[in-house]
Amino acid sequence: MCPDRTRILHNLPGRAQLPHRHFPTLQRERRGREHVLAGAFPLFIAPMMHNIGVDWGSTIFAVISVLLIPIPYVFFVYGKRIRANGYWSKESV
């Protein structure tokens, strides 16, 4: 597991703090999702590029990536308010 993610899991407040025995499970779950996405990507990308063309196919991915740019800033600005509404993270606010 990436050291940053381990540090984040170690710093979870109160009841949300997980014992070390759960780290391998979390790591397997995360890797499993990555493998499923990596395996599914070629199944839809080739037909999409063939049907709508490389120009429009690339534009779709560019638009998606541009739409995802503000997400870190939203969490930075509204993160405290979001954590205050969460069940596991109320104590950290």
Report on the structure:
By secondary structure, the protein is mainly α. It has one domain (3-92). 74% of the residues lie in helices and 0% in strands. It contains three helices and no strands. The protein starts with a helix and ends in an 8-residue tail after the last helix. The mean pLDDT is 77.
Gyration radius (Cα, Å) is: 19 Å
Helix content: over 70%
Biggest pleated sheet: none
Q: Compute the number of strand runs.
A: 0
The helix-and-strand class reads mainly alpha
Give the number of domains. Answer: 1
Quickly count the helices: 3
Shape: flat
Low-confidence stretches: none
- End-to-end separation: 26 Å
- Hey, roughly how much beta strand do the residues contain? under 5%
Order of helices and strands: HHH
Mean pLDDT: 77
Q: Could you write a compact summary of the structure shown?
A:
It is built from 3 helices and no strands. It is mostly helical and 93 residues long.
Secondary-structure topology with pairs:
Elements: H1 3-10, H2 23-68, H3 71-85
Features of this protein?
single chain; 3 helices; mainly alpha; flat; 93 residues
